[in-house]
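Progress report, Aim 2. The chain analyzed during this reporting quarter is listed below.
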Amino acid sequence: MSRVVHFEIPVSDPETAREFYTNVFGWQITKWEGPSEYWLVSTGEQDSPGIDGGFYEPQGGLSGTVNTVDVEDLDDVIEKVKANGGEILVPKMPVPGVGWLAYAKDNGQAVFGMMQSDPNAGSS
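Predicted structure tokens for the chain:
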């Protein structure tokens, strides 16, 4: 069974959002040192219930909070999304050092992400 492992909150001003969520919830938020503008959100200790997430700049059909589901075979799940009336919004892409990511809409128009772990994703 696949589980939700990550959330993303759309923000237009990451610094202001960082200050807000740090002051309200005590979250630790740091800029990702990857190839795109992204902020990592730590919501608590790893041995506590809950998940961590990130901030992203809304674009390309993504504009609301997005939950990402861990999947074993992203290509297989993409085909299942299409076969069940869903739509792929952002095709499979590497997240260097993390894995393969795609975004989709379900048959009711809710947006979600799918991530296949692969530390070699994006390596040449």
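The chain has one domain: 4-117. The chain has a mean pLDDT of 91. These observations will guide the mutagenesis work planned for the next reporting period.
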